[in-house]
Design brief:
heterodimer; A: alpha+beta; three-stranded antiparallel β-sheet; B: alpha/beta; seven-stranded mixed β-sheet; four-stranded antiparallel β-sheet; 17 strands; 16% strand
């Protein structure tokens, strides 16, 4: 299974089997955002707590495939404790890694429920994949265009959560 | 709905049939393809592909317009296709009752638009089943919002059958019943004739979705007892881009146009227009002519195999698939829909352990096995059975036991992969 092992790297399977930061924070005070992928019925719920410009806590709930669930888990581990500007940089870099096809993808069955937060995306060639650490394991998803929406679902949802947090502040 | 006669139809020579389908000879990821998604779209035999090419190479011109020879031939062949398709479903007056549409979805939208707008007013009720495809729900939602209609729902029980205990109350005073002959998720065959009789008793018109049943079961609209029947060519070995609405002549005759344009008029003046006769009234613009030739060839192919034989083969193969999957995977697999193969078609939705259907389908693809994963455009039903998505393997006349075994082997690999 040469091709498919690029998709299902060991790190991805590990985060799928043992998701990190699973659950929901009390909201309020935490900000709660839902994301939805109509193609596969995946749902992700991100609750995040931003204190003094830092994502002090984040939890992930919802159901979905291994790619959406592991991407959400990896994301939660990567952003927890980080200042908001760094998190936004990371979102840009991650989406840059995934953007090779995403802009040309149809959104599921046409009735996309995905949050439409406008995230500035790095050009793919500008992405330093090494800077992504474990998240680079999701790079193989790009070879499976139908699954890119699964990988980016939680990131778009987080971006929307940050936007909502800042518009209130 | 199960219309299997008691004498045994001849057994299908599937190895020979497979050779008629060029696509089934290809490989995927180094494995021979195992195509188990015919409920989404079936493959086409060379007889259909050849018929379409022959028409394009020798006869093509626009229909109902030119007076020159090939235009007249094209018109004759197009109308002969209508006759042939109508005869296949037992239509009494194929030349007046068979409307060519883009697909089954458009056929159902046509009924909602033309029959619905002429016959439904604020406060009216219509009845749908919980197992309808979105194509037999959303057109009615649109009309309900526009006209102020109430939609009542025939519920689905835990085994995936319609619950008919309160059928008479649900139908009482309703103007229309929308019902699928066969669920595209569960394979359930509904007792359409009985339910249609009850609907008629209550004064309702019955529109049936035959997209899954017409390709797999003998169909006779008079014994089915419905008023409209919609189906698509591409699920019955024909091309994409053409579907059929069969409607009772008196109902069609009382309906206004659907889309406006050429073909659907008798006269156009600056102050208005006079619609054409049925069925052309509902066929605005140049129709899918090559596709009609292809659909007619698909009907010929199915007729030559024999729909009783197709159904018998699929009952036998569905039985084998249900048994094989249960034996191999036990409690790890949950198969949705009726347990008795006589009550269902060859559509097998399942969940395997807690592996997401998308992941199951991805690993199966690695072995050349094509199954659908998702909500199958039936979200009210998915909510009823309590899942976001299922994996779905669907069988056709060109599938055999080896295909089922390949599915089971690949499923075991998916299990090993996700640990």
């Amino acid at each position: 299974m040469s091709g498919i092992e690029d998709l299902y790297r060991e790190i991805i399977l590990d985060h799928y089997r043992s998701p990190r930061n699973r659950g929901e924070l009390d909201s309020p005070p935490a900000r709660r955002v839902e994301g939805f992928n109509p193609l596969c019925g995946d749902e992700v719920v991100v609750t995040l707590d931003v204190q003094e410009g830092v994502v002090s806590d984040i939890k992930i709930a919802g159901t979905g495939c291994s790619i959406s669930q592991s991407s959400a888990s990896l994301m939660s581990a990567a952003v927890k404790g980080k200042p908001v500007p760094e998190v936004r940089d990371l979102i840009r870099t991650f989406k840059g890694m995934m953007s090779i096809h995403e802009s040309t993808l149809p959104s599921g069955n046409g009735d996309s429920g995905e949050p439409d937060a406008q995230v500035e995306v790095l050009e793919p060639e500008a992405v330093d994949v090494d800077s992504l650490g474990e998240l680079a394991a999701l790079q193989g998803v790009v070879k499976f265009p139908v699954r890119i929406k699964c990988a980016t679902l939680s990131w778009n949802t987080l971006a929307q959560g940050l936007d909502e947090t800042e518009s209130v502040a | 709905m199960a219309q299997v006669k008691t004498e045994a139809p001849r057994e299908l020579d599937v190895a020979r049939l497979k050779k008629d389908f060029p696509l089934l000879a290809r490989e995927v990821h180094g494995h021979p393809i195992t195509y188990l998604d015919s409920a989404a779209s079936a493959q086409r035999p060379v007889q259909v592909l050849d018929a379409m090419r022959e028409y394009d190479e020798t006869t093509h011109a626009n229909v109902h317009r030119g007076v020159y020879s090939i235009a007249e031939e094209a018109t004759r062949r197009f109308e002969a296709a209508r006759q042939n398709v109508g005869a296949f479903i037992g239509a009494a007056e194929p030349t007046r009752e068979v409307v060519f549409t883009k697909n089954a979805t458009e056929a159902l939208n046509l009924v909602a638009h033309s029959w619905g707008r002429a016959n439904l007013q604020a406060g009216d009720s219509i009845v749908l089943t919980e197992m309808e495809h979105h194509a037999n729900i959303v057109p009615w939602h649109i009309l309900a919002a526009e006209r102020g209609l109430t939609i009542r729902w025939i519920p689905v029980d835990d085994e995936g059958r319609l619950t008919l205990d309160h059928l008479e109350q649900l139908l009482e005073g309703s103007k229309l019943l929308g019902i699928t002959c066969m669920s595209n998720v569960l394979g359930t065959l509904n007792p359409v004739a009985d339910i249609a009789a009850a609907a008629h008793h209550a004064g309702a018109v019955v529109v049936a979705d035959g997209a899954q049943s017409v390709p797999h079961l003998p169909t006779d609209v008079s014994s089915l007892g419905v008023d409209f029947l919609a189906f698509s060519a591409h699920k019955m070995l024909g091309p994409t881009g053409i579907g059929v609405l069969w409607g009772r002549e008196d109902l069609l005759a009382g309906m206004g146009p659907f889309l406006g344009g050429g073909e659907m008029i008798l006269d156009v003046r600056k102050d208005g227009f006079t619609p054409n006769d049925i069925p052309w009234r509902f066929e605005a613009g140049t129709p899918p002519i090559t596709e009609a030739i292809g659909l007619s060839a698909a009907v010929d192919y199915l007729r030559s195999v024999g729909m009783e034989a197709v159904r018998s083969h699929e009952v036998s193969l569905t039985t084998y698939a249900l048994t094989t999957l249960a034996d191999r995977f036990g409690d790890d697999i949950r198969i949705f829909g009726p347990a008795d193969p006589i009550d269902r078609g060859g559509v097998i939705s399942f969940s395997y352990r807690d592996i997401h259907p998308h992941d199951v389908s991805q690993v199966l693809d690695e072995y050349g096995v094509c199954v659908r994963a998702g909500h199958h455009c039936a979200k009210p039903l998915m909510r009823r059975i309590g899942v976001n998505a299922t994996a779905r393997a669907s069988l056709a006349l060109y599938n055999d036991r080896a295909d089922v075994e390949t599915l089971a082997d690949a499923l075991a690999q998916a299990g090993a992969f996700f640990g």
